[in-house]
Design brief:
PhoU-like_sf; Methane Monooxygenase Hydroxylase, Chain G, domain 1; alpha/beta; PhoU; PhoU domain-containing protein; PhoU_dom; five-stranded parallel β-sheet; 5 strands; Rossmann fold
């Protein structure tokens, strides 16, 4: 009977296989970037071969980890590391699948006209990959502490490409439809690669620090307040809710038009009576919003989200309507009685919403 290797040796073997797997995927990402810069179909064919190698490595890693759990019964850091490696191998395999799928699409067609945007997404994604790689195999955890910021840049570029694709679809010809669908498909795969790199980074963080001491802050979901009066009512609603949920979610304000005359700081004295500090939220236009990380849309008054935006809001995003929050910003600014009525109605709504968010947070922990 062959002697069972020590736990340290077995874990080292897992990480060695995982590193080989990551190197193969990184080669695929680099090949895609090179193809966008200097097209060469022969390079892309090699990515298909690499994908088979990646699949075989994932199976080998699964087998080794199962052997570790069965023969070593690891605890503490070693258990977290073994579990993380299994999860990471799965993430890397999915990244490899996305890279292969992109290569196949490029082999069967020309580089899209939006070459520069795709290149930016590719470079951001490769940066995310290299940061997670460095954190895992070089031990530099500072590389992944703010990894979600880079992921947000990928999301923004995907939004830009989806907007371009929607405009192309309006032209209606078969070639335009095929082109638009190709843009959407390719941008979705790049966004998926970025998300999987973030998942990889989070597994490294948990393995090294445990759940209680993890260094990467869990990505906050966003609550988006929307109104049709330049964002003034939405800003006030967000300010009232802010103190109760700031550690759980991020708040955003969206409007169809920019504020012209009103400013939330004009309400400082009124809000101070309720021990509320006005918060200055950047007011985004609808067309610039990325809805991917929106947990809830809180729609005030008579605001209606355009049909083309509704089509890109994720189906899991909850939409809440507060039709009674339908005040004239000028009137509540100049009439203390009207402002009090506004705050009383809004406070009931925001308190109820804060309770819902708190319960949602408890269930997810």
């Amino acid at each position: 009977m062959s002697r069972i290797s020590s736990l340290e040796v077995q874990l080292s073997n897992v990480k060695s296989l995982l590193r080989t797997m990551c190197d193969a995927v990184n080669t695929g990402l680099l090949t895609l970037i090179q193809h966008f810069e200097h097209p060469n179909q022969d390079r892309l064919i090699k990515i298909v071969v690499l994908d088979s190698e990646i699949d075989n490595l994932e199976r080998a890693i699964d087998t080794l980890i199962l052997q570790i759990l069965a023969t070593q019964q690891p605890l503490g850091y070693e258990l977290r590391l073994a579990y993380a490696c299994a999860k990471i191998a799965h993430h890397i395999e999915r990244i490899g699948d996305a890279v292969e799928s992109l290569a196949r699409q490029l082999v069967n067609g020309d580089i899209p006209e939006q070459k520069e945007i795709f290149l930016e997404m590719l470079n951001y994604s490769k940066d995310l990959f290299e940061r997670s790689y460095g954190a895992m195999f070089e031990g530099d955890l500072t590389l992944i502490q703010e990894i979600h910021i880079l992921d947000d840049k990928v999301d923004f570029k995907q939004r830009e490409l989806n907007h371009i694709a929607k405009n192309i679809l309006k032209k209606g010809t078969k070639s335009n439809i095929d082109n638009a669908l190709r843009i959407i498909s390719m941008s979705s795969k790049l966004e998926k690669i970025a998300d999987l790199c973030c998942n990889w980074a989070e597994q490294i963080d948990i393995a090294e620090n445990g759940m209680a001491r993890r260094k990467i802050q869990k990505r906050k979901y966003r609550l988006v307040f929307l109104d049709d009066v330049g964002g003034m009512l939405a800003s006030l609603a967000a300010s009232i809710l802010y103190q109760n949920v700031k550690d759980i979610v991020d708040l955003s304000v969206v409007a169809t038009q920019p504020i012209k005359s009103n400013n939330i700081l004009n309400f400082t004295n009124f809000l101070s009576e309720y021990e509320i500090t006005p918060q200055i939220f950047p007011i985004a236009r609808i067309t610039s919003m990325n809805w991917n990380k929106a947990l809830m849309l809180i729609i005030l008054g008579n605001f209606e989200l355009p049909k083309e935006e509704l089509e890109v809001v994720p189906y899991k995003t909850v939409q809440i309507r507060w039709p009674e929050i339908n005040f004239d910003p000028d009137e509540i600014e100049n009439n203390p009685t009207k402002f009090k009525e506004f705050v009383n109605v809004l406070t009931v709504r925001t308190n109820h919403l804060a309770q819902i968010i708190a319960r949602t947070q408890e269930q997810s922990e």
